[in-house]
Write a structure and sequence with these properties.
Radius of gyration: 28 Å
Strand content: 15-25%
CATH superfamily of the largest domain: Bira Bifunctional Protein, Domain 2
CATH topology of the largest domain: BirA Bifunctional Protein, domain 2
Strand order of the largest sheet: 1-5-6-11-10-9-7-8
Largest sheet: 8 strands, mixed
Structural class: alpha+beta
CATH architecture of the largest domain: 2-Layer Sandwich
Helix content: 25-40%
Number of helices: 16
Number of domains: 2
Number of strands: 16
Length: 430
């Protein structure tokens, strides 16, 4: 081995996708995209580089300050590799606000980077589906997101009851902080983080965390009571809290449509600061994948950062890493098989042009075929075809040329037959 040779490993927290990995990735991406289009959503994209200030404005302290890949370009401008899509999509909508027909239904599947500790379900480089609707203030926008998730999971083959969408509302939490806990503004951010971690903590540890923040016993007891709230408890706050009104309106529709995979959960917070109402996260109910499979919520005020008009918005994101973990847990990974089924062997280099003519004809008919480029013993070619998973091998030799046919060997059925060149397209289509 060469001394000081370059490492073959990818950057820490990034992933190499070999062809077999791409089959899984494309399977997931195709379901995401096809389902979004079935809902009437249009695909878009943005630059992977943005001005860093875009994320410092509303993305939250952790994301903007500790997880951001940022640097100064040669012009002295601070730029960042996008860690999420929502600020970018808000920016491009604000740029052409008056030209776009409302409501706006857009989706994107892109690559993102966050500087965080790589672990199960989380890497520094990841792909993410982004699914957003702009211009609908009613809770029907949230319902559309729920239905999209449900349809996507159904297409993936997720067993019934294997996942849940947990829903809360930031306005309900604000009401609780203001009117029940009388919580000082300086403690809200830390308290919100503690609520977000509530499912991961024992009650005693949760209480100690709140004590460290500065909450008194009465405030802690009130918050513990809130953590056990049901929708019936929320209904008692209708007309008192905007968040309660929105939650009940949402779950009335959930019940009406029988979306049994959607539940209220008071500990759902979401760490990003631009959410204004509904917040949601999707989880594996089996416990094998503790990280959220996806999340999102309503961000009605985000476009105002760009000096434009206010526009209600609801968005949802789902990452490839956690979703592939989920698919692996429930045996939902697609069968790994080559897309190409036909292999044209080369018995003698003098038949290269004839082989090339045949493969060109087949490809023009939409048939995927790999052509052998170098003459070699047929046994080696046959072994190669078998290992690659090809079903058919086209064989061209002197006898075949003399008769105006080719031999087609079926590796699956262990059979062989002679076919006229002009009949090959119809043979493989059948």
């Amino acid at each position: 081995m060469q001394k000081n040779a370059l490492s073959t490993q990818p950057y820490k927290g990034a992933t190499d996708f070999y062809p077999k990995d791409m089959i899984v990735r494309n399977h997931l991406f195709n379901i995401w995209a096809d389902t979004a289009k079935e809902f009437g959503y249009e695909e878009y994209d943005t630059p992977i580089l943005e001005e860093a200030v875009l994320y410092r404005a509303k993305s939250g302290d952790e994301l903007a300050n500790t997880q951001l890949y940022n640097f100064f370009d040669k012009g002295g401008r601070e730029v960042a590799i996008r860690p999420e899509m929502t600020p970018s999509v808000a920016r491009i909508i604000a740029a052409k606000f008056n030209e776009l027909q409302k409501p706006i239904r857009w989706f994107n599947i892109g690559k993102f980077y966050r500087y965080e500790k790589p672990q199960k379900g989380r890497d520094r480089e990841f792909f993410q589906l982004n699914f957003d609707i702009f211009g609908v203030s009613e809770m029907t926008a949230e319902i559309e997101v729920f239905k999209y998730v449900g349809m996507t999971m159904k297409k993936l083959g997720a067993p019934k009851g294997s996942y849940k969408i947990y829903v809360n509302n930031r306005y309900l939490l604000d009401y609780f902080f203001d009117n029940v806990m009388n919580l000082d503004q300086s403690m809200r951010k830390a308290t919100s983080r503690a609520i977000d971690n509530f499912p991961k903590l024992k009650q005693g540890d949760f209480e100690l965390t709140l004590e460290d923040i500065g909450l008194n016993k009465s405030q802690i007891d009130s918050l513990l009571d809130f953590m056990s709230y049901s929708l019936d408890d929320v209904r008692k706050l209708v007309t008192k809290s905007r968040g309660a009104d929105e939650l009940i309106a949402t779950f009335d529709l959930v019940d009406e449509l029988n979306l049994d995979y959607v539940e209220f959960k008071p500990s759902i917070m979401r760490g990003i600061t631009y959410y204004t109402g509904t917040v949601l996260e999707i989880f594996d109910t089996g416990g094998e994948n503790p990280r959220a499979l996806g999340g999102g919520g309503r961000y009605d005020d985000l476009l105002e950062l760009f000096g434009g008009d206010k526009l209600p918005a609801v968005g949802f994101a789902m990452g490839n890493i956690t979703m592939v973990d989920f698919m692996r847990t429930y045996n939902l990974l697609p069968e790994i098989k080559p897309e190409t089924e036909v292999y044209c062997s080369l018995m003698d280099k003098k038949y290269y042009s004839l082989c090339s003519e045949i493969t060109d004809t087949l490809r023009s008919e939409g048939i995927k075929v790999e052509q052998q480029l170098v003459e070699m013993p047929f046994g080696k070619q046959l072994g190669y075809a078998d290992k690659k998973g090809f079903r058919y091998v086209i064989i061209i030799g002197e006898d075949e040329v003399a008769k105006g046919v080719v031999a087609v060997k079926d590796l699956k059925n262990k059979s062989q037959q002679f076919i006229k060149k002009e009949d090959l397209p119809s043979f493989f289509r059948e």
